[in-house]
Amino acid sequence: MAQIKQDMPPEGGYRPIHFKRIPCKTFFSGAAIIGGYVGMTAGAAYIYYLNYGAVFRRELEVKGGSLAIYPMLLAERDRAFLKQLRRNRDEERELMKNVPGWKVGTWYGEPVFVGPEADKFHNPSISEYYVHSSYKDMKKIVNMQFAV
Amino acid sequence: MTITEATELPTDEELTVQEVNLSGPVLKAGAFHLGKSCEYENNEFILCRREFKDPRKCLQEGKAVTSCTLNFFRQIKKTCADEFTQYAYCLDKSSPDQQYTPCRKTQAVFDKCVKDNLGLDRPPFDYFNRVHVHKSPRPALPVEGPAVYPDATPGLPPTAETPPAKYGSRFLFFW
């Protein structure tokens, strides 16, 4: 018959249970974190302010340079534009010469714009301006600033 | 289909003049001095364009702009060709979008040459962004007033009685 041995705690009892909370090591206090955040934001805002002015002046100068040459470019563009309008009109006259009742610049004699001034200049739309050229040529210029 | 037979278009002879055959960096390099020396012609042309909104009516002004620009670049070529070429080359090669900032040294050399030879100062960097008053010899266009319609509803005569509203205001929130 086997001896019954009661399971008992070790001599002197168990070790104490660790229940005390061990917090993380703190490097900064709360006030230091908030103060640091405010200070860094203020410093960054000041640097941003300086940089903003510099970028603004730089872009202003570039824009000024473009404005200075704008009249020259516009004058050149106007002459090329008017030449092309004449070419377009000649092309349309040549193309539609066999169509009875067709009048150039109108829909069988019905004008697009009606008004008191007969000679008023109406800017043609971009698709009208490029109507006698290929779509590829129109696509090249359709988003450009100086186009029609 | 807006250009009809009745629309007057200038002939090719009227439109053909010597154009400014220069590339973008070169134009940008000369832009500030050009704008300053051709200021009158430029303002006259842009004023005409904005007033008439018609490219056909501003051809003479446009030709004046082009010839002034050509004259300016001829003068530059005669006097400061090397400095100008250096500056334009720097603008072309220093940044992808032809910024003025990386080329201050060559710009200073070019400015000094222009100042010595042509007596032209470089205008302040925001000179062309400011509002300028331009005195044009051309008379001003008549101002178009508000439209007058003959069949408009006539208003009350000035002696008409205006009694208070019979049922108060119809606006419910402020009775």
From TrEMBL, chain A:
Q: Which Pfam families match?
A: GRIM-19 (PF06212)
Record has Amino-acid biosynthesis as a keyword: no
Record's protein name: NADH dehydrogenase [ubiquinone] 1 alpha subcomplex subunit 13
What Gene Ontology cellular component terms go with this record? mitochondrial inner membrane; respiratory chain complex I
Please classify the protein's predominant subcellular localization into one broad category: mitochondrion
Record's bilayer topology term: Single-pass membrane protein
Q: Record the organism.
A: Ceutorhynchus assimilis (cabbage seed weevil)
Q: How does the annotation summarize its subunit structure?
A: Complex I is composed of 45 different subunits. Interacts with CARD15, but not with CARD4. Interacts with STAT3, but not with STAT1, STAT2 and STAT5A. Interacts with OLFM4.
Functional summary from the UniProt entry:
Complex I functions in the transfer of electrons from NADH to the respiratory chain. Accessory subunit of the mitochondrial membrane respiratory chain NADH dehydrogenase (Complex I), that is believed not to be involved in catalysis.
Q: According to its UniProt record, where is this protein located?
A: Mitochondrion inner membrane
From TrEMBL, chain B:
Q: Where in the cell is it found?
A: Mitochondrion inner membrane
Alphabetical keyword list: Disulfide bond, Electron transport, Membrane, Mitochondrion, Mitochondrion inner membrane, Repeat, Respiratory chain, Transport
Q: GO biological process: what's one of them? A: mitochondrial electron transport, NADH to ubiquinone
Residues folding into a coiled coil are: none
Q: Which GO terms describe its cellular component?
A: mitochondrial inner membrane
The protein's superkingdom reads Eukaryota
What family does this belong to?
A: Belongs to the complex I NDUFA8 subunit family.
**In UniProt terms, what function does this protein have?**
Accessory subunit of the mitochondrial membrane respiratory chain NADH dehydrogenase (Complex I), that is believed not to be involved in catalysis. Complex I functions in the transfer of electrons from NADH to the respiratory chain. The immediate electron acceptor for the enzyme is believed to be ubiquinone.
According to UniProt, the name of this protein is NADH dehydrogenase [ubiquinone] 1 alpha subcomplex subunit 8
